Amino acid sequence: MAKYIVGLTGGIGSGKTTVSNMFADLGIEIIDADIIARQVVTPNSEALTAIAQHFGQEILLENGELNRSALRSKVFANDDEKKWLNALLHPLIRQSILSALSAASGDYCILSAPLLLENNLHVLVNTVLVVDVSVDTQLKRTCRRDNSDQQEVNAIINSQISREKRIGLANQVIDNESADLQQIKAQVTTLHKHYQNQAKTDDLAEQSFKK
CA-based, 20 to 30 A from 80: which of 18, 89, 139, 204? Predict the structure, then answer.
């Protein structure tokens, strides 16, 4: 298991994936909560079967995969349905994350999760890194990237923790307002060295405690 776990998060359109990829380029193992969330609802999985039984077969694509947009439209404005879905999926996702973290190697690894703070996944990590941009920038970038309308993106932003609370819970913040890749890379490189040092410090402290 990695000695040190970094929780990476940020609001929609903040550039979290760009930062995550830069850490991966440095050889750091990334546990991506979004990928795990997709894995627990693969065709014929118990979770997807339960979802189809609850919402109906129209929630499935012709190839048997989950129709994410159809599911999103059913739960986004319905708190009861959202709670039902979360009660089903969150324990499965959390257990898969724990397994992946236990199998991770290296001085440190990264748990990348857009809802790290909202779903209390930050209790699993040693430190929280937030990729930050203004709400206006989130809106513009996401609309451009996903070809979405402003109302839909605003609803997603409002469903996430506020920018102020996110920053307040952060141990480190990467400013991605300018979207300057060289500037971001410089911040990532500095943090990479910091996390390596923290992992070694924690390891030494643990060895000293065991003695």
Answer: 139
